[in-house]
From TrEMBL, chain A:
It is found in: Cytoplasm. One of its GO terms (cellular component) is bacterial-type flagellum. This is Protein phosphatase CheZ. Belongs to the CheZ family. One of its GO terms (molecular function) is phosphoprotein phosphatase activity. Its main location: cytoplasm.
From TrEMBL, chain B:
CDD domains: REC_CheY_CheY3. Keywords: Phosphoprotein. Gene3D superfamilies: 3.40.50.2300. The keyword Chaperone does not apply. It comes from the Bacteria. The modification 4-aspartylphosphate is found at residue 58. InterPro entries: CheY-like_superfamily, Sig_transdc_resp-reg_receiver, ST_Response_Regulator. Residues 8-125 form the Response regulatory domain. GO terms for biological process: phosphorelay signal transduction system. The keyword Phosphoprotein applies. SMART domains: REC (SM00448). It comes from Azonexus hydrophilus. This is Two-component system response regulator.
Length: 274, 131
């Protein structure tokens, strides 16, 4: 008999029955193999088996007297177990869970690579943008400082506080500022703005990759959900996962346990007296 | 404690991008004396080294998370006076309450703006100034 998984109990039971009944019914070893072949074991089956196992010693003990009557009952139970195992296996196959599991195994490493790619691209983009702002910031500051210096000087001109020699110098400086420094710095700033714009090209690439992963996740979710609904008792389904490290709230709609903006944070803290 | 531009900040976040953003925002607000740590454990080491006057920390980090860091700071005699501002993506009410109960000086949810950071910093400086 090809025993697998949990069937050692079953085997023991079977053996005890078989040895008891062999003289009367030589064909007895035939029915049990079905449960023995049940690789996709489940709790229901196990529970049923346990109940059968608990009952059977009595049946076996009393078997000497009622041999003829007891055996058909046992056979019916074993047949039913066999049918259940078969049905379970077929159902899993029909629902595509075996394919789903197979697909998951092959799809997850791929999804992992894709997500790593997304993380990589977004990090690069963040670095590019931060570098660009680091370069552009001082340029803009220079422009502001230069304008202020010239503006202050021109204020002195209008206040009649400037000598003709100083005025001549200011005129040259102003001309140079407008003709050279300003165009140079605005151009350089513009180049950084372009760099910031170009750094957004990750969105197209990551968008495509993420969409694929979303589809995969949806398939996985619906498949696993179906499996869970069949296997999990009602009471367990509603148990919530509670944790303080959940990361960003992706969808706050209909949830009352999260805040959606800083104002709500402040209001909550205020209401608690912090 | 007044809003001294020389105030020494420790920015704790496991993502270098976020550390850089917070550092840049602090710079814009006039605070240039900023050091970084990539998780709570490293932060604690740096804090024990002394010299820091303000901690800005994320929550979800490897090795030691921000809440544990906060609790450890509040339980350490030479650190417990430090203002600790949390900047985190954790937005559950129980998170905010847990942080407040652990003694956080402020709580900012990501994504946040420069204005929010400035406002919270000022509020904390005011509070510590009165104390």
């Amino acid at each position: 008999m090809s025993a697998s998984n949990d069937s050692s109990d079953l085997e023991a039971l079977f053996d005890s029955i078989a040895s008891d009944y062999q003289p009367a019914t030589p064909a007895a070893p035939v029915p049990p193999p079905a449960p023995g072949k049940n690789d996709g074991d489940n709790d229901e089956l196990q529970a049923l088996f346990d109940s059968v196992a608990a009952e059977s010693p009595a049946a076996v003990a009393g078997g000497d007297q009622v041999q003829g009557d007891a055996w058909p009952q046992q056979e019916a139970v074993f047949n039913r177990i066999g049918h259940m195992a078969r049905t379970l296996h077929d159902t899993l196959g029909q629902l595509g869970y075996d394919k789903l599991i197979e697909k998951t195994v092959s799809a997850l490493p791929d999804a992992k690579d894709r997500l790593a790619y997304v993380a990589n691209l977004t990090e690069q983009a963040a670095c590019r943008v931060l570098n660009a702002t680091d370069i552009a910031g001082p340029l803009v500051d220079d422009i502001a400082a230069g304008s202020k210096r010239l503006g202050d000087s021109w204020d002195r001109v209008f206040a009649n506080q400037m000598s003709p020699e100083e005025f001549r110098k200011l005129a040259i400086e102003t001309r140079q500022f407008f003709n050279q420094q300003l165009p140079e710095k605005t151009q350089a700033t513009h180049a950084q703005l372009t760099e910031i714009m170009m750094a957004q090209d990750f969105q197209d690439l990551t968008g495509q990759v993420i969409k694929k992963i979303v589809v995969l996740a949806q398939e996985l979710e619906s498949g696993l959900m179906g499996l869970l609904i069949e296997v999990l008792p009602d009471a367990k389904r509603t148990e919530e996962v509670t944790s303080l490290m959940n990361g960003p709230v992706v969808n706050a709609q209909g949830r009352t346990d999260v805040v959606v903006n800083q104002e709500q944070v402040d209001d909550l803290l205020d209401s608690l007296g912090f | 404690m007044a809003a001294d531009p020389k105030t020494r900040f420790l920015v704790v976040d496991d993502f270098s991008t976020m550390r850089r953003i917070v550092r840049n925002l602090l710079k814009e607000l006039g605070f240039t004396n900023v050091d970084e740590a990539e998780d709570g454990a490293i932060a604690l080491q740096k804090l024990q080294g002394g010299g820091f006057e303000f901690v800005v920390t994320d929550w979800n980090m490897p090795n030691m998370d921000g809440l544990t860091l906060l609790q450890t700071i509040r339980a350490t005699p030479n650190l417990k006076h430090l203002p600790v501002l949390m900047i985190t993506a954790e937005a559950k009410k129980e998170n905010i309450i847990a942080a407040a109960q652990a003694g956080a000086s402020g709580y900012i949810v990501k994504p946040f703006t420069a204005g929010t950071l400035s406002e919270k910093l000022n509020k904390i400086f005011e509070k510590y100034g009165q104390a």
